[in-house]
């Protein structure tokens, strides 16, 4: 190596150290930002988890209420059709009785 090159070696090492220190600083800042993002993500995920749980509970309750309403409607419908069938049987019996009676001659 030449004499000029030996003098430039410490400057070069110093520049490399400065660059490395700068990169270390940037990596440290990025790690801190990434950690902060991760914590925010965890908080958001917990909030989302709670929202989904609440939604599922509300849907379950609403579906139970709808099921109960449908059951009640079915009972009412069954009762009405039962009454209707009873009325039709009674009419049928009356018509049959009337048809069996002897007719009056006028």
How does this structure look, described?
- With 106 residues, the chain is mainly alpha-helical.
- The chain contains one helix and no strands.
- The protein has one helix spanning 3-100.
- The longest helix is centred in the middle third of the chain and has 98 residues, at 3-100.
- The termini are far apart.
The topology string of helices and strands comes to H
Per DSSP, what share of the residues sits in E-state strands of 2 or more residues?
under 5%
Q: Compute the gyration radius: what is it?
A: 45 Å
In helices, the fraction of residues equals: over 70%
* Total DSSP E strands: 0
Largest sheet: none
Number of alpha- plus pi-helical segments: 1
SS-based class? mainly alpha
Any idea what the shape is? rod-shaped
Low-confidence stretches: none
Mean pLDDT: 89
First CA to last CA: what distance?
149 Å
List the helices and strands and how they pair.
Blueprint: H1 3-100
Task: List its traits.
106 residues, mainly alpha, 0% strand
Summary, kept brief:
The chain is mainly alpha-helical.
């Amino acid at each position: 190596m030449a004499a000029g090159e030996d003098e430039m070696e410490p400057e070069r090492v110093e520049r490399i150290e400065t660059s490395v220190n700068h990169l270390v600083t940037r990596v440290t800042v990025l790690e801190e930002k990434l950690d902060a993002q991760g914590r925010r993500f965890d908080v958001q995920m917990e909030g989302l988890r709670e929202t989904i749980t609440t939604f599922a509970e509300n849907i379950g309750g609403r579906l139970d209420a709808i099921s109960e309403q449908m059951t009640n409607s079915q009972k009412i419908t069954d009762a009405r059709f039962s009454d209707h069938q009873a009325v039709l049987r009674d009419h049928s019996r009356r018509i049959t009785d009337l048809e069996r009676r002897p007719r009056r001659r006028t």
